[in-house]
Amino acid sequence: MRKNFSKKIVGLALLAILTGYFLPLPVLALDYVPLVTLPGASEAGKPLTNTGEYIKGAFNLAIGIAAVLAIIMIIIGGIQYMGTESIGGKGAGLKKIKDAVLGLLLALGSYVLLFTINPSLVNFSVSIAGITPPTLSPEQERATQEASIATLATKLDSALAQRRAAAMGNADMLNAVAAEYLAKANSLEELGDQCGDSSSELDYLKCQELITYYRTEAGKMKTEAITITVNSETRTNYQTALTYFATLNATPTLEQIEIAAIDANTQKSAMDENYQDGITKLRELQGEQIDQVAIDKILTDWATRDTAISKNIADAWLLNTAFINQTEAATRTGAVKEMMDTIVEDATTKMGEINTSQATKDEIRRTADFAIFAIQANCQQQLKTFPITVKICTTDYKPNW
Q: Cα torsion at 213, 216, 219, 221 (round to 10°)?
């Protein structure tokens, strides 16, 4: 039992370290008055002013006790080793000395190891008075406030909140629920100074915030409904346009290419109208928190699909060019260049939309540049594949940005 006593003291010292670093701050902040004096850390009968200093003093005291006990055990082991002639007695005394030395090394080694890693690990600097709550950024404060108002709105009318959740992804249902939200805002606004009750959870200020919340959420739902409708309509136009190119074989005639190009352009025009109509409707929501991010997303998708259709038309004009004559070559050359001009013009128009972000403009231009590069690469490949004397299209086209 006695030979393991120094090891238990070391364990207590290590426990003091873990206690100092892993106890919650509220625990450390308890108004504790020690009954006895702890050397270098506290005085009996006086409240603690620095919990960290108290833990540090307890840790140092534990190390000191371990050292004293280790020395006592070394002396006892030495006396036992010298005072007996039996081999068993000398072995027991030698073991006491080894255990004591090992315990002392563990106690001192724990302090040295922690101090080597980081001196603050044995400093135990815990100042309760100096702790201040973390400050939130304006965005975080706004998000917290919005979450609080949303919770209040759900509590006041949980059925309406459930209808909104069920409307996600459905344009008609979103518009219907948005109308209910606006009606809620209008009814509260009509109450004027009577809006809210200071004796209830919904006071006047909360009522005003709730009005703003209902209007903002109605605008978000209308924006989502418009976006869903635009995506649905334009996806149909886009997929229909691509089917015209899928019907062309590897050796289409000039007439077949012309028909496919006309049909694809018809779908492209319809798609452009749907996109433009969606953007116009979004801008009409300006009084209800217009969402520029949604507009930028529509512009990016529009540019991607517009450019893809124009590139497919250009690629179609480069099919079956092995044995064409000069007249047909001139027709195809003009058509390919026209498509590259169209890509640049379409991209320029979209980048010129009001309040379009620079990131959106860069993405639109990058999409157009890549399409033009791909068309010219196809031109170059055609010239290498078919040893004809007619120049089908230009490979040095430069966009006029």
A: -50
pLDDT in tens, 279-291: 999 888 855 556 7
CB 353 within 8 Å of CB 299: yes
Question: What phi and psi, each to the nearest 5 degrees, are found at residue 399?
Answer: -60, 145
CA of 161: how far to CAs of 175, 177, 183, in Å?
A: 14, 9, 14
Q: Which amino acid is at 115?
A: F
Separation CA 31–CA 23 (nearest Å): 15
Three-state DSSP state, 119: helix
With beta carbons less than 8 A apart as the criterion, state whether 343 and 371 touch.
yes
Backbone angles phi, psi at 184, to 5 degrees: -60, -45
The CA distance from 294 to 299, in Å, is: 9
Please say whether the beta carbons of 245 and 316 come within 8 A: yes
- Return d(Cα 112, Cα 99) in angstroms, integer: 20
CB 331 within 8 A of CB 254: yes
Q: Does the predicted model carry a pTM greater than 0.70? A: no
Domain assignments of the chain as residue spans, ordered by start: 2-122, 138-214, 230-385
Residue-wise pLDDT for 167-221, tens only, equals 999 999 999 999 999 999 999 888 887 877 665 667 788 888 899 899 989 988 9
